[in-house]
Amino acid sequence: MGLEIKVPPVGESITEVVLSQWLKKDGDAVEMDEVIAELESDKATFELPAEAAGILKIIAAEGDTLPIGAIVCSIEEGAAGTKKPESAAPTGDKKAADAVEEKSKILSPESENSEKDSYAKGTPSPAAAKILAEKGIATADVQGTGVDGRITKEDALKTDSGKTVDAEVRKTEVILRPPAPVEGKPGNRNERREKMSPLRKTVAKRLVAVKSETAMLTTFNEVNMKPIMDLRAKYKEQFKEKYKVGLGFMSFFTKAVTEALKDFPSVNARIDGDQIVYNDFADISIAVSAPKGLVVPVIRNAESKSLAEIEKSVLELALKARDNKLTIEEMTGGTFTITNGGVFGSMMSTPIINSPQSAILGMHNIVERPIAEKGEVVIRPMMYLALSYDHRIIDGRESVSFLVRLKQLLEDPARLLLGI
């Protein structure tokens, strides 16, 4: 047996992985360090490289759950193997099969003569059909004496008129009987089952745990986005030209959150046993929709970053999430989470806390609505904000005050630059 390739250790808390995809086939020639498969844990996706050059011999199948250290495949020295072509059926056997099939058609009860018999039997001629209709006699009550059982004119004339009464009764019953319901064509009712990915199973467990282990509440507010939108429209071209990245809303919200967390440290804290752990830094988790599910990469020390640095971090993490390239370190930790359902059109939601954090901010879509401003009704682009928090550590006064502070910072962006 050649060199065995085993599942490598990928993290302290990870004990098993799923073989999500083979990138090479059994018998393929591979080079050293060439990626041959993808492994998926409950936190990230990893590449499995070939540890030597040779011929790949697959042992584990796609979808298998493998413990750390399990054998995935082996690599043997030599030329690429060849697969045997599927043997074709001998020509003689094919001809014999065709002959049997043709013979079965000839001897089949559904031959041409049988089809004629089944069609003619009990079928009246036009003249016979007219006579039977006048007498009110059903064709089923007449025995045909014509060719292949066809009902002739003579058969109709000789039919006992005494059956007319029964025929009339049956005719009346048919008229009085309600019509049978017409069955519509049934729709597609297929089902398909897919095994939950490790990421999806982990997310499901954590969300249920958060709902049952925290005293979660949600408070709401709204923010006038016009000042930020005006600021972006005025400087976005200069900003992109200087920093080589676009100026989006997420940098404003991240910066505003870090400022508000300084005023309300309990929103940035967590419970650890019977202690409250306060953080003097703000590691902001950004919820990102990835191909395999929701992931939450972290922007470290966001309180010390500029708007441009935050935008670059968001873009880098989003691209990695899209390509399933996020590492465990990039998704571990975080003291506060921001999720933006507005990109999907959400008007209002109650986001679930990202444990072990104590709060999460939900952004929503921007909708122009009439509001009162300085005694006048005006149309402004408004966004609803939702703060879900653990009431065990954050009081209602703090949660509401946090959102109010956030609203002040966003509606007056100069505060973000001046730190006031």
Labels describing this entry:
single chain; Chloramphenicol Acetyltransferase; 6-stranded mixed β-sheet; 18 strands; OB fold (Dihydrolipoamide Acetyltransferase, E2P); 4-stranded antiparallel β-sheet; 12 helices; 24% strand; 420 residues; alpha+beta
Task: Walk me through what this model shows.
The structure is a single chain. The longest helix has 18 residues, at 226-243. Helix 8 packs across helix 11 (396-411). This protein is an alpha+beta fold and 420 residues long. The relative contact order is 0.10. Helices cover 35% and strands 24% of the residues.
Summarize the structure.
The chain has 420 residues and is of the alpha+beta class. It contains 12 helices and 18 strands.
Spatial order of the strands in the main sheet?
Answer: 9-18-17-16-12-15
Biggest beta sheet attributes: 6 strands, mixed
**Helix- and strand-based class?**
alpha+beta
CATH topology of the domain at 217-418: Chloramphenicol Acetyltransferase
State the end-to-end distance.
Answer: 69 Å
The number of E-state strands comes to: 18
Q: How helix-rich are the residues, as a percent range?
A: 25-40%
The CATH architecture of the domain at 217-418 would be 2-Layer Sandwich
Percentage beta strand: 15-25%
The CATH class of the domain at 217-418 turns out to be Alpha Beta
Task: Return residue spans where pLDDT drops below 50 for at least 5 consecutive residues.
Answer: 80-97, 102-118
Taken from the alpha-carbon principal axes, the silhouette is extended
Q: What is the CATH homologous superfamily assignment of the domain at 217-418?
A: Chloramphenicol acetyltransferase-like domain
SSE string? EEEEEEEEHHHHHHEHHEEEEEEHHEEEHH
Task: Specify Rg, calculated over alpha carbons.
Answer: 38 Å
Q: Helix count, per DSSP?
A: 12
Mean model confidence by pLDDT: 81
